[in-house]
Amino acid sequence: MAFNSLPIDALKMKMDEAVRFLSISLSIANAHTVDFYTRDVWSTFISVSPDEVLSAINSSVRAGAAEGKKNTTFGFCNTTKKLVDVSAILMAAKEHSLSGLEVCMQLEELMHDLKLMSGDIVAGERMDRCVVPGEFMNCKKSHEVRAMSEVVNGLAKCCKVKQVIDVGSGKGYLCTFLSVQFNLQVFGIDSSSTNTHGAQERNRKLKKFSKAYKKHSRAMRNQEAEPSNDGNDRTEKHSISDQEVRPTNDSTQAESCASQVQVTTDVSSKKAIECIADTNDCDGDGFFNMLSPDIIEDNSPRVHPSQLSEEEKERRKRENLERKTREGLSNCSDDSLFSPLTSYVTAETELKTLITELEDAVLVGLHTCGDLAPSTLRMFRAKQELRAVCSVGCCYHLLSEEFDPDRQECTDGVCGFPMSQFLKDQACFCGRNARMSACLALERVSAGGGLPMESLFFRAVLHVILRDHYDSFKSEKRVGNVYSKATSFVDYVRRALKKLDLDDSELPDDVIQNYHERYSHRMNEMVAFNMLKVTLAPCIEGLILLDRLCYLKEQENVSHSALVQLFDPLQSPRCYAIVGINFDGKGLSK
């Protein structure tokens, strides 16, 4: 598939197909596991046995198309609305996923098209991937940063810009990689000052290593190119001057003139949470493997804007403006600067008042949580200086929905879903539980990464106990992660009741254990039901992403847009990016 080759009318037809399927199957995804036994969820939605569901799911990879039962739609009975044909829903889910709808580009296809558009290669020419250093992060993050930076650099070349704005930049891994590897000037925006300061220190250390690494890299390339070199000829045949770090005798100046700009901001989105990440570090030699362990830091919680007072916001802004002045932006000889700022930012914020040296730039967001991902796309549409966008979202359960009857108020009156006028006209909504289901990783589960079924089972049975013995089983308080500390079901229940501030003195251990024994034989119902949720996850995620793509295609100033699979879903389940370009009279024509 070529960049921008999917017409909007064809996209809308695909979206209609997905909406029709989900309008029937979404009831399963919206059922809450906590209520599984108190509301008898299995009997309410399913008319087959758990063993039949699990057997069909386990054999679905080998199964071909099966003839659907009469009076059913996607496996659901048209009369009772219950699932009666497991094979039919599994087949329909596969057909209505992003891969089944055939709406995605692959990374290699996108990079080839970007190089053609920027004139880096001609049609049919072999394309080499960029040379990247080793990891200074875990395997998952390294995989994401490598792929994302390749796309961002391609967009920057295509649009003839040298600046990048990274929204939700976290610890600054992507920012640092873009600035060191591709010599781009990067402005990082994050809601956590802890993340910003950590990124600043990391970037300072990376600058000290970059010169030595690149010198070693050039020497190795020369050695490979001229194996018979007797050492007298010191001429470098393979220049990488575009990645050079210019030497300086003033180490203080080199450290203050770092290669990225980090802007700390309180972004207008729901509270961001850290996504589940693979913590196994990769092996390998290279630039980042030369770094000391103190450069690699754990993720820290982010502070939501609502938790900051107006005085604190002003104090942070003033403090960082003063720091920016002290660092002497205009006196630095390196164009890539590191200048942390604190500000409250929305899609309506004038970026040039926040970043005075801002020119045309590429806007990026790597795993921006909840409403921050759609806000990034709205910012791209609204700001003329933003020439391209590459947005990878996550945490769909934190999205606000305009047409969800149970929704809370959207931030600034603008909701995260739907974005497109096409789905707005249909008053489309998914529901929070369905969006939470969209966060499940089908590929990981299929590869043997099981769901935490015992903890889900414990929580569902606890809800029965709360219903039977307490009046506050609908309390606003949350049980939280007490399962990891519990030694048994009885211990779990007592810890949970304490967390809920409920008296457990009149609830003997044997009574608690009897609840476990009463429902343990029905645990396979919960396993089967949650596997159905996992099967539907790619379809829900797909609709959310297609809505974002449609939103870009509806904008007159967006000349190119596509949905691209950037990552391996086994390493990074939220693997899709929305990519857009706005030439608008600059560069190529629409």
TrEMBL record:
<feature type="compositionally biased region" description="Basic and acidic residues">
    <location>
        <begin position="231"/>
        <end position="247"/>
    </location>
</feature>
<feature type="domain" description="Methyltransferase">
    <location>
        <begin position="140"/>
        <end position="401"/>
    </location>
</feature>
<dbReference type="InterPro" id="IPR052220">
    <property type="entry name" value="METTL25"/>
</dbReference>
<dbReference type="GO" id="GO:0032259">
    <property type="term" value="P:methylation"/>
</dbReference>
<feature type="compositionally biased region" description="Basic and acidic residues">
    <location>
        <begin position="310"/>
        <end position="327"/>
    </location>
</feature>
<feature type="region of interest" description="Disordered">
    <location>
        <begin position="296"/>
        <end position="331"/>
    </location>
</feature>
<dbReference type="InterPro" id="IPR029063">
    <property type="entry name" value="SAM-dependent_MTases_sf"/>
</dbReference>
<dbReference type="InterPro" id="IPR025714">
    <property type="entry name" value="Methyltranfer_dom"/>
</dbReference>
<protein>
    <submittedName>
        <fullName>Methyltransferase-like protein 25</fullName>
    </submittedName>
</protein>
<feature type="compositionally biased region" description="Polar residues">
    <location>
        <begin position="248"/>
        <end position="261"/>
    </location>
</feature>
<keyword id="KW-0489">Methyltransferase</keyword>
<feature type="region of interest" description="Disordered">
    <location>
        <begin position="214"/>
        <end position="261"/>
    </location>
</feature>
<keyword id="KW-0808">Transferase</keyword>
<dbReference type="Pfam" id="PF13679">
    <property type="entry name" value="Methyltransf_32"/>
</dbReference>
<dbReference type="GO" id="GO:0008168">
    <property type="term" value="F:methyltransferase activity"/>
</dbReference>
